[in-house]
Amino acid sequence: MSAPSERPAELDRSDPESEIAARAEAYRNWGRWGADDALGTLNFIDDAKRAAAAATATTGRVISLAQAFDMAGPQKGWRRRTNPVHTMLDTGTDAERGQGFPHGLGGADDVIAMPLQCSTQWDGLGHIFDHGFAWNGRRAGDVVTSEGDLVTGIEHAASVIVSRGVLLDVGRHLRPDTGELADGYAITVDDLEATIAAQGSTSAVGRGDIVLVRTGQYARTRREGWGEYAGGSAPGLSLTTAGWLHRTEIAAIATDTWGFEVRPNEFDAPAFQPLHQVAIPNIGLTIGEMWNLDELSDACAETGRYEFLLSAAPLPITGAVGSPINPVAIL
């Protein structure tokens, strides 16, 4: 049986069900790390990988890859997602008027309420299901209940996601005039490989790497306003990149867009996030979204080096299917 096509023009745009199923079956990693696995492709990161990644940090420069977590964020209520609501519990004004502490001590406290996937974040392995099945072939209802993800909660990855990061600046490579791909542009395997070739040896992708794909959409929204960024049209990876995501044995991947894959999706029949359906529950791939890759893009272009130490630990929220993060690249 031949492998699914890696050319978007060869997708049967009328049959998303069959196209998704072919890739899910071809690239399924169920059982690869045992029946009790909770990490999926994050298993590709080991101590040796982290030690080698640390050696790529030669200048000590640190770049945060997070968007701001505030009320001015991209969310507009789609899928009940809101921007973070930050509320002060105690303020300097309270301290001036006395808070009941001895010897003049005063303090401030605050609280935040937010969906876990409203800004820069990881999609955990319990976030997406395929025909009622979660990662590693478990029934979705046995994994995620009203008590949270009982099996693959994001807390399992809290000390794992430190590795070699690789920036694939597809926006800058394909559109050197603007550095920004158009909404609806489907990034292909050829695009990824061409970007790697153009950037040079430091952008070679392999086992245990965390790949960051910059489309430039985030830069456009910061210049023109959020618009329909959260839930709207976007450049992103084509469904046909599923085989590349599998065979490169990367640990995780993230983009500067809200949904990782191209939007609208690549079918004339109703389809929603087909690459998520293949990548998360079948490949076991952790996916990051809404990362701010612009400063990193400039730094890599200036130095000609596209690899770095990347630390992107999720909050160890017990049973969560995703987590806000402040990923940092150390150059």
TrEMBL record:
<dbReference type="GO" id="GO:0004061">
    <property type="term" value="F:arylformamidase activity"/>
</dbReference>
<dbReference type="Pfam" id="PF04199">
    <property type="entry name" value="Cyclase"/>
</dbReference>
<dbReference type="GO" id="GO:0019441">
    <property type="term" value="P:L-tryptophan catabolic process to kynurenine"/>
</dbReference>
<dbReference type="InterPro" id="IPR007325">
    <property type="entry name" value="KFase/CYL"/>
</dbReference>
<protein>
    <submittedName>
        <fullName>Cyclase</fullName>
    </submittedName>
</protein>
<dbReference type="InterPro" id="IPR037175">
    <property type="entry name" value="KFase_sf"/>
</dbReference>
